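Me: I keep going back and forth on a fold encoding question. No explanation is needed for now; the record alone will do.

Assistant:
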Amino acid sequence: MGFEFLVISLLNGISYGLLLFMLSAGLTLIFSMMGVLNFAHASFYMLGAYLGYSLSGVIGFWPALVGAPVLVGLLGAAFERWVLRRVHAFGHVAELLVTFGLTYVALEVVQLLWGRSVVPFSLPPALQGPLFSLYGVQFPRSRAFIMLVAVLMLLSLWLVFKRTQWGLVIQAALTHPDMAQALGHNVPRVFMLVFGAGCALAGLAGVIGGTTYVTEPGMAASLGSIIFVVVIVGGLGSLTGAFVASLLIGIVQTVAAGMDVSVAQMLGAIGLTVDASGSALLQLSMAQIAPILPFLLLVLMLVIRPRGLLGTREG
């Protein structure tokens, strides 16, 4: 494993991790405000990709990059206003179940409207091709674009929460909803706007992820479970924790996926000598177990620190 492999894997891992953060940021916002783990969050990611695909064919990619997240945000706000708010009185279990049901509704709608096959959603020519070459390996412009959009999104969230009146109102509604309501702020409307904003962030990630990777009906299921791992490992309700966990999981999974060494060899590299002759598990390569590493990290985090890396609440 050479230095060039580490550098390229690190860059790819950071870009993948920042895509995970773009998706997990909205889920974290929704949970921090409402205490609801939105099981349908990855479905809004999928809707963002498909709406971006349809809009880009009519108005072009750059307007679709803005328009698709706005439409997804409006759908999310409508869902909170007319569905989620109605079941809120029945507790968090009812909220979880209704968002879980929404995942199947969204999947069926996508398959009815766009079919079951992959759609040809690609980036514009300006974002295609390599950005630079490092040690003979090309780093694509698409991954650099993911990194740029994610960093801009992070800065925008920080500015909104720390430098605007809306950010102060949102934080007040989060910590002291009754007091915020008494001061004349419409707390239910704040919740609706935050839910819509969180879904819009998922839609933005969908447009970026759908063009960079693939746009197909299974894209929500493939990333949905990883997003919950990110949110729980980072700490429920912590945006900073979600950012750290996204980068950690993205780098670990990407580096492991490119390693053609067995588990036994990895253990030997850190000083643990084991006999792998009678164990199929120890003979597996790191690339083969890369998909389960985030879930192993989740189990380890729940055992050692259930609140997550930077979480302040238990659930």
User: Anything to note?
Assistant: The first strand starts at residue 130 and ends at 134. The CA atoms of residues 117 and 131 lie 30 Å apart.
